[in-house]
Amino acid sequence: MNEEQKKAQINKSSTGEKDYSQYFETTYTPPSLKQAKKRGKENIEIHYDFDVPEDMQQIGKDKKFLIRTYGCQMNEHDSENMAGILMRMGFESTAAVEEADVILINTCAIRENAENKVFGEIGHLKALKQENPGLVIGVCGCMSQEESVVNRILQKHQQIDLIFGTHNIHRLPELLKNAIFGKEMVVEVWSKEGDIIENMPRARKGKIKGWVNIMYGCDKFCTYCIVPYTRGKERSRRPEDIIEEVRHLARNGYQEITLLGQNVNAYGKDLADIDYGLGDLMDEIRKIDIPRVRFTTSHPRDFDDHLIEVLAKGGNLVEHIHLPVQSGNNDILKLMARKYTRESYVELANKIKKAIPNASFTTDIIVGFPNETEEQFEDTMTLVKEMEYDSAFTYIYSPRDGTPAAKMEDNVPHEVKKKRLARLNALVNELSAEKNKEYPGKTVEVLVEGESKKDPEVLSGRTRTNRLVNFRAPKSTIGTVIYVKITEAKTWSLNGEVVEPAEVNI
Ligand code: 5AD
Ligand code: SF4
């Protein structure tokens, strides 16, 4: 069969469940978003016995790997796990593509432009593969959970050797072995979430700040969002496993941790044997000797009073709340299935402000959701003014196949969406600049992260509320918490000079 005939073979199936067996001399079940939507009652098992089999621990000897990561912190953290597994297989990491023997592209499916970037990169790698046929290229992350993406790769991107899903990371040793030694493209994507694998090796990217996963998946099903399909149902890790990981990071000198989950406020809801939530977890983590604890990302609906009470205790629990609002208009919020109103969101924020007076808020906003009128967009603008966000991640709505919103008519013209985004960003910047103007003369606590981007002689770090601060200080302060008196405010950052702790007043 020639290439054209093979393609025809694929295309002629009308069932949607295409059989690629003749094409790739292998069979596989394509991922299915429909399947991924199902939420069953089956128990999630936790495994503590992960290891790279002995016969696979030398596979990477004298070989190098590179992981390109797109998207959110969850993906960054997954890449740390994959790097850990690859190192356990004997691979070394490299930052140079030409040096790599294995390249993994950890993808993001949240918006179309994220997907386009990935396909751009896959295209570029074709030439590299031609020069170096021994190179193994893998695609993983959220895009690989989408049937349409897998099919597109199968049909058009023969340079890819391996596709695996977000629930298959622990299978990497086996899959990679098959990709290296087999002739066929290896595809393994489970649509249903798997169990929790506790002790995967992990190669963390930094030594100052660390991510700690507290739960996986999302059951919220906001109508625009692909995440509940690509990441499966909500599964919480056991508190004792999380606490042990935080203690381990503290012992190893980490200064800040971020508790991670697609919807961290739902933490514990699925733990059948204990009545335990994010508030309880944070109350225990608060007692661990680590200077800063953050969490992301929250859903306003699950932000309960106990959590607020615990956060108000302060200490290492920083007063920064990322609280995605998405829209300031009730009709749009309803279409998004966010299940709160503008009023209840503001009420929650006020409750938090009352308990934590110096709390700073950041948010996520989508503009141009189906049917969004100019007036409805104005509601978002007035909400942003009312909330005085420190900053906001703002996005143009992007229809995602398989989600309920994708069935709505995407009827806001792209030009209008772009204009709304520009107006919103101008407002967010203005508010951020205004807020920064309050800082000169004040002293803030800063975790020193390293050299600043623009000048290696200048160091930079972040306040408890995540504001960027630049200052001159000895390099020995990197990785410590110091105090900086702010001398100048810019739109996105603050400049200052180091002072003694006694002068702190913020
Ligand atoms: N289009 C645009 N933005 C989206 N987000 C999620 N799905 C979409 C989409 N289809 C945004 C939301 C979410 C953030 C992580 O990404 O604002 O909070
Ligand atoms: Fe997506 Fe909504 Fe879940 Fe966030 S809470 S991951 S926006 S479905």
UniProtKB/TrEMBL annotation:
Cofactor dependency: [4Fe-4S] cluster
Principal location class: cytoplasm
GO molecular function annotations of the record: 4 iron, 4 sulfur cluster binding; metal ion binding; tRNA-2-methylthio-N(6)-dimethylallyladenosine(37) synthase activity
EC number in record: 2.8.4.3
Annotated segments matching region Disordered: 1-23
NCBIfam families registered for this protein in UniProt: miaB-methiolase, MiaB/RimO family radical SAM methylthiotransferase
S-adenosyl-L-methionine as UniProt keyword: yes
Organism lineage: Bacteria, Bacillati, Bacillota, Bacilli, Bacillales
Domain (TRAM) ranges: 437-500
Name of the protein this chain belongs to: tRNA-2-methylthio-N(6)-dimethylallyladenosine synthase
